[in-house]
Write a structure and sequence with these properties.
The protein has about 375 residues and is mainly beta. The chain is built from 2 helices and 24 strands. Strand 7 and strand 8 form a beta hairpin. The longest helix has 9 residues.
């Protein structure tokens, strides 16, 4: 019996650039660390240890031998319902001297829940955080729902801090409003203040923190080595997951543009593309649920240099995208599971994967 792709999906597929199936060397996957609960974000310290968040609200240190510490002290309370909790973290570019750590979390405030950015210092003994201080709330707070916080952090070559925020799900149109910080990527000073050369700075009725708008639930941010381009991944609804290259002041369309449909099968947008809105460089129908992303620039896998790795939740696994300039030229599914929340290149040139599990692990990929 001959099967045919539904007409709608075929039409959407024709809108996307052709993507080849890439080939890569064999890999060996081992458990590097175990005993974590829903690890979400991680960063390597200069001494090779790994600082890791757990979504229920804990921060732990993983030694070079994979041993997991007791929870660190000084971590603020979080709103750990739905998709919320203690989410991403990033080290300041000058962490070696300042010991500054930036954390993103879901927080319950008057009026509901929101995405919050904090700045803290890692104590000299690395057993606690010191002076954890909120520096930005992605207002307004929203009482309905506990989903779509975004919450990925990346420092750019310009020294700015970039933070992704989700549309918070209940009101999709928040992603298009310039007086609202939901459904955006923000560009900030390390104090949490907007930078004066941001695209909407000085515009009446617009938040000066906004760098780009029209995002649904962006959980991937990564700067491309050699070009300084900021790449981003976000969850679509049922289908329509995206990888984008972000440009200051640009609108990426959600919810006026999407290649997916709502969870009940109903149409969300009238078109997959519109004038004045930026199309993705990669889109998936059906979904892969992309979370964290990272470019690979290590020595352990020479054939992978320049590739963009995508942590996938559903179907679970790890995806490698080959990239030429601003184009995706190939795709390879490296793992069939488990659910991967984040991928972190290590100082040893290996890849470390955080699994989205109640009995969470950090997997290590090495040459096979």
């Amino acid at each position: 019996m001959r099967l045919r792709l539904p007409t709608l999906l075929l039409a959407l597929a024709l809108l996307l650039p052709p993507v080849a199936r890439a080939q890569a060397p064999a890999v060996r996957v081992t458990d590097f660390a175990t005993g974590l609960e829903r690890p979400w974000g991680a960063a390597f310290l200069p001494d090779g240890r790994l600082l890791v968040t757990e979504r229920p609200g804990r921060l732990r240190l993983v030694g070079r031998d994979g041993q997991v510490s007791a929870p660190l002290g000084g971590v603020p309370a979080v709103e750990a319902r739905g998709q919320g909790g203690l989410l991403d973290l990033a080290l300041a570019p000058d962490f070696a001297t300042t010991r500054e750590v930036y954390l993103c979390q879901a927080m319950l405030v008057q009026g509901g829940a929101l995405t919050r950015l904090l700045r803290a210092r890692l104590a000299p003994d690395a057993a606690s955080l010191e002076a954890a201080t909120p520096i930005l709330d992605a207002t307004p707070a929203q009482e309905q729902g506990r989903n779509h916080y975004g919450c990925r952090i990346a420092f750019g070559p310009d020294g700015a801090l970039y933070l992704s925020t989700g549309d918070r799900y209940a009101d999709k149109q928040r992603a298009q409003r310039l007086d609202d910080l939901a459904g955006k990527v923000l560009r900030l000073a390390r104090s949490g203040a907007p930078l004066p050369d941001n695209p909407f700075a000085g515009r009446p009725g617009a938040r000066a923190e906004i760098f780009t708008l029209g995002h649904r639930n962006p959980q991937g941010l990564a700067f491309q080595p050699g070009t300084g381009r900021l790449w981003q991944a976000e969850f679509g609804p049922r289908g329509g997951d995206e990888v984008n290259i972000l440009a200051a002041g640009s609108n990426y369309g959600w919810p006026r543009v999407t290649r997916g449909v709502d969870y009940d099968g109903s149409r969300i947008a009238e078109a997959p593309s519109l004038p004045g809105m930026v199309d993705p460089v990669m889109s998936w129908v059906p979904s892969v649920s992309p979370s964290g992303i990272a470019f690979y620039a290590g020595e352990a896998f020479p054939a992978w240099r320049g590739s963009l790795f995508v942590a996938a939740l559903n179907p679970p696994g790890l995806i490698r995208l080959t990239v030429a300039g601003d184009r995706v030229t190939g795709e390879e599914r490296l793992l069939d599971g488990p659910r991967i929340r984040q991928v972190v290149p290590g100082p040893d040139g290996l890849l470390y994967l955080l699994t989205d599990e109640g009995r969470g692990r950090i997997l290590r990929l090495s040459p096979g």
